[in-house]
Design a protein that fits this description.
With about 425 residues, the protein is mainly alpha-helical. The protein is built from 11 helices and 8 strands. The chain has helices spanning about 25-45, 55-70, 140-160, 170-195, 210-235, 240-260, 270-295, 300-325, 340-365, 400-405, 415-420; strands spanning about 15, 75, 85-90, 95-100, 110-115, 125, 135, 425. Strands 1-8 form a two-stranded antiparallel sheet. The chain has a two-stranded antiparallel sheet with strand order 2-5. Strand 6 (about 125) and strand 7 (about 135) form a beta hairpin. Helix 2 runs antiparallel to helix 3, helix 7 packs antiparallel against helix 8 (about 300-325) and helix 8 packs antiparallel against helix 9 (about 340-365). The radius of gyration is 26 Å and the shape is elongated.
């Protein structure tokens, strides 16, 4: 794992058997339940290893989600239950009560609306930041949680590639960039498309919190942009482009930090420090390269002021590095100040400051302003964005005949609630 990246742990879940007992009335209905159970177990087994091939994860994810989709939406042409299945709701005393379900989803291509199986299981998942388990009898929640882990796998895969050697090759850098954009797209899809579909209230400060989802999306986008920035430096692009990219990257980390500001829980402290660290570092980078732009325009006084601001933020960054290393909570045990990218930049700031001060004393004799020169607000190109997530369609094995082989009675409690005491946990790290 690279010293340069903060990674929260994967989510853990109970085993989900998809066993509906006598409610699966045909052999084909029971068969698709078993296929879905096996597909989930196979994916859960792959996710803890960030060294797996991307195609392996993609295929396993698509296989499971396509099978899961038949439990969430009904195949086109299938019969619908006369009333939606019951839902479990928590009473103020913490007990579970039965309540009739809500409205059906709008039909889409290949689907006839909400499946009668959507609320058939009680789903339990841990959170990436807090120790509380979240429980819902909604397979949309299962879909969210699986996609959460898939997105986290992409971030860990990117970090593993980036940390595998001191100098990352171009093809590896492209894969890191692609993985981070993919993760950002998944988190954005969860926040914008899936969480609004849930009918139960989420636990406070859980992974369903839009502030946390926003932080994940912004983090992945900012880290993808770091790859672009590193490439621009390596190829010796113009100082103005590098300064603008660094400034935009700093702003993304600042937005990620700000999304967590209203969460008063020590679980987010280390994560917030990571965002602070990256914000200070890339703002330092932006001012240092802005100094080079100003010097090329013979504005030596402003150049000195800009690089001094860079040095100030670099010193702040070193302090935050120490705080991050000491901080407790979820996340990577790392020392960011030992990363090669960080260690190289400090001497560069010092050399740049010495150069502009020397040139000013011998050539320009310009006054150093008190006000810090403004940075470019927008890079001309190279900005990263989340890769749009393409939802998985319904597995071809789901037919109206198989779907109609499930007979759900109005008094059927979610299966996982009935059998949860018999389940073991699937844990990922």
């Amino acid at each position: 794992m690279a010293h340069w990246f903060h990674r929260n742990p994967l989510k853990a879940s109970i085993v989900l058997s998809f066993d509906l007992g006598i409610q699966a009335t045909t052999p084909l209905a029971r068969k698709i339940c078993n296929e879905t159970r096996d597909a989930r177990a196979a994916l859960m087994q792959l996710l803890p290893d960030p060294g797996n091939e991307v195609t392996t994860i993609q295929n396993a994810t698509e296989n499971y989600l396509s099978l899961l989709e038949g439990f969430i939406v009904a195949p086109q042409g299938s019969s619908q239950a006369s009333s939606p299945p019951p839902q479990l709701e928590a009473t103020p005393e913490g007990e579970m009560s039965m309540e009739e379900g809500g409205a059906m989803n709008e039909p889409s291509g290949g689907f006839d609306g909400e499946s009668k199986l959507r609320h058939a299981f009680r789903i339990k998942w841990s959170n990436t930041l807090i120790s509380k388990l979240v429980e819902q009898n909604d397979l949309v929640f299962e879909k969210i949680s699986i996609l959460y882990n898939v997105a986290l796998w992409y971030t860990k895969h990117a970090a593993k590639l980036a940390g595998s050697k001191q100098e990352v090759e171009e093809d590896e850098a492209k894969e890191v960039h692609r993985a981070l954009r993919t993760a950002a797209g998944i988190f954005k899809h969860i926040e914008e498309s899936l969480v609004p579909q849930l009918k139960e209230e989420g636990v406070a400060i859980s992974d369903l919190d839009t502030r946390i989802l926003s932080a994940y999306t912004l983090q992945c986008t900012a880290e993808a942009q770091e790859v672009t920035l590193a490439r621009a430096i390596e190829l010796e692009h113009s100082a103005s482009l590098i300064s603008a990219l660094a400034h935009e990257t700093a702003r993304l980390f600042q937005k990620a930090r700000d999304s967590l500001k209203s969460i008063e829980d020590p679980a987010v402290t280390k994560w917030s420090l990571y965002f602070n660290l990256k914000f200070a570092f890339y703002l330092s980078y932006a001012h240092c390269y802005n100094c080079k732009v100003l010097l090329s325009k013979e504005k030596c006084g402003e150049a000195i002021r800009s690089v001094k601001e860079s040095d100030t933020f670099y010193e702040k960054c070193k302090i935050v590095c120490e705080e991050y290393a000491k901080a407790k909570g979820p996340g990577t045990i790392a020392k960011p100040e030992q990363h090669l990218f960080f260690r190289r930049f400090g001497p560069e700031v010092k050399r740049t400051l010495e150069k502009v001060e020397r040139e000013n004393s011998f050539i320009f004799y310009q006054k150093i302003p008190e006000e810090v020169p403004e940075l470019e607000l927008k890079a001309t190109y190279g900005l990263a964005s989340p890769q749009e997530f393409a939802p998985t369609g319904l597995n071809q094995n789901w037919t109206p005949q198989i779907y109609d082989g499930f007979h759900m009675s109005a008094n059927s409690a979610p299966a996982q609630a009935r059998h949860s005491s018999q389940q073991s946990e699937e844990r990922t790290t």
